[in-house]
Write a structure and sequence with these properties.
Layout (H helix, E strand, L loop, with lengths): L9 H4 L5 H15 L1 H4 L2 H25 L8 H17 L4 H23 L4 H21 L1 H4 L5 E2 L3 E3 L2 E3 L5 H24 L1 H11 L1 H6 L4 H27 L1 E2 L6 H15 L3 H29 L9 H16 L3 H15 L22
Antiparallel strand pairs: 1-4, 2-3
Helix pairs in contact: 4-9, 4-12, 4-13, 4-14, 5-6, 5-7, 5-12, 6-12, 9-10, 10-12, 13-14, 13-16, 14-16
Organism: Phaeobacter gallaeciensis
Keywords: Cell membrane, Membrane, Transmembrane, Transmembrane helix
GO cellular component, one term: plasma membrane
Amino acid sequence: MRIVFKTDYMQDIRPWKDGYQLSLYLLLLVAVVIAPWILDDFYLGELTNVLIWALAGLGLMVLTGHTGQASLGHAAFLAFGCYANIILIEAGVPFMLAFPLAGLITGLVGVIVAIPALRLHGVYLAIATLAMSILVDDIIVLTEPWTGGVGGKYAPAVNVFGIMIDRWSTPKEFYWLTLAVTVIVTLGYINLLRAPLGRSFIAVRDSEVSAQAMGIDVSRTKAISFGLSCAVTGLAGALMGLYATAFNNETFSVVISIQLLMMIVIGGLGSIHGAFFGAIVIGFLPQFLSISKEYVGAVFGGSTVAIPGLEFGIFGMILIAFILFEPMGIYGRWLKIRTWFELFPFYRKDMFKRQKSYLKTERLR
């Protein structure tokens, strides 16, 4: 049994609980830094894809996981970030300026959308954001002079401090670029949750009436959350466009929005770790299914022809299983296992019992 004995106020607000947890994070950071020398180009590309999905998951986690606002339209903001980045680069803006500008533009669009949309709650907000995601598909087609329409656009190699980076010709450099952006955003997210604004997000999520009683401007907090969420998602969209190299209006479909929401639910809603765990599932599941079909075909002599809808069917079954048996997601399960080892033999099953009733203040809405 390991007990953390706190002797300083800084221990309550620092990002890690103790030196042991910090050492684990540092070991993980070392592992992902040396990955290009361990993995071949194929698996390095898959790891890059996981980091991009994790970045998009962090964007949605701000809004849904920590502010409690459901969204099924974040594929639209992935598209905004992707197209804004490429259009700025084609206009002659350097990538190191175009990339953050793409995130900023997407965040501003998110704030504008949030003003009318956040008057809605629950399923009505989800439907409104879903409609926006569908609408963006038509907007891309109608603005063909800028977006390329159905024909789409091609992402060029980008210049980062004098180094030309391309997903195919320089996979290691592109991986490090993605890793750097992901680490910076994650550190910013951690510090956001320690700040008054991040605590306001969580207060609004738990009870809007109680948060308002404590002096929090609920509408302003929701709008800021929506803007930050869309800005981070826009950065992920810019990297996703560079990763795909070719994209059009069908690249960022409604399915992507649904995948993002399912990803953070499976990973663990309301935790930064959950975005990464969910990204691992959604990133490696297609490859796992492909390898499994080949293995089963080799052993049993069956066909390895692709089965339409198999990936989404299995992903849906995984989601249902987590909702029924582990609502806290993969990170919640890991938290229970870790707590069991830390508190053994004093661990009790009811420590993580679900709250089955709403706050009385929420019944006034």
